[in-house]
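This protein record is not my work; I was only asked to verify it. Take the sequence as given and treat only the tokens as open to question. I have pasted the whole thing underneath without changing anything:
***
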Amino acid sequence: MSAQEIVQRGLYFEEFEIETRYLHRPGRTATEADNVLFTTLTMNTQALHLDAAFAEAQEPFHDRLMNSMWTLSTMVGASVAQLTQGTLVAQLGLGDIRFPHPLFAGDTLYTESVVTGMRPSSSRPAQGIVEIAHTGRNQDGTIVATATRSVLVRRRPEETS
């Protein structure tokens, strides 16, 4: 009996199912270093992310907020291994992005994704378009971010005998 090799990958178009909920684990605990590095790398000089004394004096949170683009990027990134690793052709768009509650350093971000729609590509027969709704929650289950994403993914390769 020979050993089998399995390469981790995302889903082919045919493997997605509408209304399926994917829970992406483990979660990711946000750190102050994440916030400062991401914020400075992206040239975002917002004092609410960088200046603890300024943020402490601001209503209503009195604390530095995690950069919302870090939250969005981490939320989408958490889905890659399970959904699109190696099967993604292109990200077509992001929409309906909301941040209903802040995320702070020390909070853990848990992401889930629901497939909301899919169709074969009309111009690329070997590919399909999948619509995904992402939700990020903190460790208390509070929703901190939502977004929809449209991706172009490969269809399952033809099996050859």
Remarks:
- The mean pLDDT is 94.
- The helical segments are 32-41, 47-50, 52-56, 68-83.
- The chain has four helices and five strands.
- The two ends are 21 Å apart (CA to CA).
